[in-house]
Every structure is written in C-alpha cells, then in structure tokens.
Amino acid sequence: VTWLWDIGAGHFLVLAAILFGIGVVGAIMRRNALIVLMSVELMLNAGNLTLLTFARLHHDMKGHALAMLVIALAAAEAAVGLAIVVGVFRTTRHANVDRLTTLKY
Amino acid sequence: MRGIALALLVTVVSVGAQSLPALAHAQTAPVAVDQNVAAPQAAAAAPQATNHGAGQAVFFWLFALITIGCAIGMLTRRNAVGAVMFLVASFLGLAALYVLLYAHFVAVIQVLVYAGAIMVLFVFVTVTSPEVKGALPPNFGTTRGMAEMLFGSYLFPFEAVSVVLLIAVIGAIVLAHPAHANVGEEELS
C-alpha cells in the first residue's frame, strides 16, 4: 500500500474535504449558535489547507497571502458573530438558532 | 477537563514536530510531493525519497488523525467549553500540517491568531528556515518571502483587511456594549 507512506497533495486535499464536511455537518445539525460559528471556522480552515496545499504544489506563495487574508477575515467574522451571539443571548436568554425565528415572518 | 489535557498534549506534539527539521521538513520531501502528483512511478523509483517520506507520512497521519478526531469531538460535545477546547486541538493539528506543507509563517499565525486570539474570544464568550529546500524558490514560506509579498504586490488587500478589522472591532463594540442592551428587546423575545 504505497498511499500509506507516499504523502502527496491528494492526501492533504482529501483531509481538507473531510474537515469541510465535518464543518458543514456541524453548521447544519447543531442548535447552539456558538457551535455553528465554530463549524464555520472549521470550514474556513479546510479552505486554508487547500490553499496551502496548492501553494506547495505550484511553488507559488500567492496561496500563503490568500490564507493570511482568510485568517484575518475569519478573526473579523468571529468578533462580529460572537458579538451578535452575546446580544441575542442577552435579550432571549438562549442561543438556540432554531428558536430564533423572528426574522422569518 | 479532558479537552484541555488533549489541547496541551497536541501543543507539545506540534511544537516537537516543528523543532524536528530533519523529520518534519526533510529536504527531499518537496520533490516527493511533486512526483506523487505528476508521476507516481518516479517517486517509487527514487530510493532516498522513501526514507524521508516515511517520516513525513508518520507526521501526516498523526496530525491528520488528531485534526479530524478533534473536529468530530468538537461536534459531539454537549457543553460549549469542551467543544472550544477540541477545536483548539484541531487547529493546532492543522498548524502542524501547515508546517508539513512548508507554510511556516501561516502555521505560526494559525497558532497565534486562531488557537490564540479567536479561540480565546470563544472561551471568553463561553520562523524562518533559511536552509535549501530542493526545487523550491528561495524564501518560500519564510517570513521574508511573506513580507515581500504582503507589502509588495498584495499591499492593497493587506490594507483593506486592516480597514475590515477596524470596522469589525467597532461593530463588535457597538453590538456588545451594555448601553445598547435594550435595543430591539421586544422584537427578539
């Protein structure tokens, strides 16, 4: 079995796909708004892993720059998202995304 | 508590991997990655690549298992604090994988910003290597190469991100400030 010890770009891409899938499942299945935000962070990291894999593959550091920008934007997203969660929790005393239906009707 | 212990363990392991340059970034490893994608037979034909590739394979599977296992653990936790700790461990494993991909600077930023700043935010709510690297261009993945790119051809996106961060900080303060706590209370409850 050569794929066990011959680590190529495909291994990293499959790992990134698995991580992205875990993030999608978490963002859809979990009710807690905090867990949903963390699943989004996991998906962003899976994208970063893909970017760095292709940067490695093509010997091109543009992927590193894009990964840095993604990390900075993820920090901004986490700050605003957590502020919204704090505000929602302050008014409704819960963080269940299934019960936050005010904007639906 | 188990999650905290796990996060500490992963920290030790990932720091150990970064301090083992002979294993974590073997000099024939970059060639091996390209050969695996372009021509698998060439990688199998090179006898020296297997020696370094075995070390890389061990680290890849170790950190891939840690990353995926902790991500699944994050999903299955009932309490948010345990989930945050599992996600920190998952991000540290990802940082070690970034080192395997020769992205040393991004790996450090991953540990500092993600496992440090962003996850501390969640908890509060709840390198350079100048050695020759095979066929890679000089300064690949180093702090100097990063700086020449971010402050050169990518200066405008870099500055734009700083504006976005400033707006995010102001927005977070406005949203979370106690003076605005009763705004929209009757609509949401």
How far the N terminus sits from the C terminus of chain B, by CA atoms, comes to 34 Å
Beta-strand content bin of chain A: under 5%
Number of strands of chain A: 0
Structural shape of chain B = flat
Mean pLDDT of chain A: 90
What is the global morphology of chain A?
Answer: elongated
Secondary-structure element string of chain B: HHHHHHHHHH
N-to-C CA distance of chain A: 56 Å
Note the beta-strand portion of chain B. under 5%
Q: Sketch the major β-sheet of chain B.
A: none
Based on CA atoms alone, the radius of gyration of chain B comes out at: 21 Å
Query: Which oligomeric state applies?
Result: heterodimer
Provide a descriptive summary of the structure in words:
The complex is a heterodimer of chains A (105) and B (189). By secondary structure, chain A is mainly alpha-helical. Helix content of chain A is 74%, strand content 0%. Chain A has three helices and no strands. In chain A, helix 1 (9-29) packs antiparallel against helix 2 (33-58) and helix 2 packs antiparallel against helix 3 (62-92). Chain A is elongated. The mean pLDDT of chain A is 90. Chain B is an all-alpha fold and 189 residues long. Chain B has helices at 2-18, 21-24, 29-38, 40-45, 47-76, 80-100, 104-125, 143-150, 155-176, 185-188. In chain B, helix 1 runs parallel beside helix 6 (80-100), helix 5 (47-76) runs antiparallel to helix 6 (80-100) and helix 6 runs antiparallel to helix 7 (104-125). The relative contact order of chain B is 0.10. The model of chain B is unreliable at 18-51 and 127-133 (pLDDT under 50). The chains are: A mainly alpha (105), B mainly alpha (189). The interface between A and B is large, with 65 and 77 residues.
